[in-house]
Amino acid sequence: MIELVLFDCDGVLIDSEWISARVFAESLAEIGVDLTPRQVVAEFVGLDNASILAKVERDHGIALPQEFDGRAAERLSAAFEAELRPLPGAIDALDGLHCAYCVASNSGHKRLRHTLRVAGLLDRFDGRIFSSEDVARGKPAPDLFLHAAATFGRDPSECIVIEDSITGVTAARAANMRVIGFCGAGHIVPGHDARLRAAGAETIITDFSELLPLLKALHAV
Fold first, then answer.
1. What are 12-26's pLDDT values in tens digits?
2. What domain of life is recorded for the organism (predicted)?
């Protein structure tokens, strides 16, 4: 029996990945790095912020200006305030769960609280927000999911993860947790469902209306 559902945030609870990709591409363009939002999604979705910045520097042979990260974060915050919304059906799905749930994300706590607040979800997750800042290694390592499960006093066998990224699915499987792939956000490209399955997702959903019936079918709740 599943006793804990662990949700990724960006691209699962909140349709934020495409906004993030567009804003990051704009910020990169200002310093001469030419990537489209689609390329940003392909290269960086699922990574924590430090890994993203390091990858940009490594792949493009540059040292990012000291002020780059702060300016990009300010631009993203403004875009989120104007555009951010929860995925359709997310609130109903959360309210329909009959077990504990939490959010476990590679984003930092400050950004997580901001995005959840803007999307109207913070009250449902306050006190059960887990960030890669809490552990030595973020996804794709299992540390974050294991930390969240331990906080709730649950064994990995009692947990199921909802993830949109290869990085997240890999982390869930490394933690010996079941994982459902989510392909309902705006950044998803054709074939992503197959890639999530190949990484270890046992099934795929594209809409939150599918979640509760699926959990029952999997004998998870």
1. 999 887 888 899 999
2. Bacteria
